[in-house]
């Protein structure tokens, strides 16, 4: 009986560590996404002018990076959730 309790405690500790790691990764991704959104907003405001073509290219690149990050964040959520649910 003590072994079963020990296994449960270890499993709970493992799941808590996994959730903490997921939360840290999501927080980091959220910060980067917000940073990119702010950069895009600033670039779009300054889009008109002598170097507008260069800014358009930067905006396009940032939008692609933002899209990739948002997709990666969603995939991580699904992956961790599937992994945690699958272990039970």
What features would you describe in this structure?
This protein is mainly α and 88 residues long. The protein has one domain (2-82). It contains two helices and no strands. It has helices spanning 2-45, 52-86. Helix 1 (2-45) runs antiparallel to helix 2. The model has no long low-confidence stretch (mean pLDDT 82).
Entry keywords:
mainly alpha; 88 residues; rod-shaped
Number of strands: 0
Which stretches of 5+ consecutive residues score pLDDT under 50?
none
The helix/strand class is mainly alpha
State the major sheet. none
**Tally of separate domains:** 1
Shape: rod-shaped
Strand portion, in percent? under 5%
Cα-atom radius of gyration: 21 Å
Rounded mean pLDDT is 82
Instruction: Give the H and E element order.
Output: HH
Q: How much helix is in the residues?
A: over 70%
Secondary structure tally, helices: 2
- Amino-to-carboxy terminus distance: 20 Å
What is this entry, summarized?
The protein has one domain. The chain has 88 residues and is mainly alpha-helical.
Layout of helices and strands:
Elements: H1 2-45, H2 52-86
Helix pairs in contact: 1-2
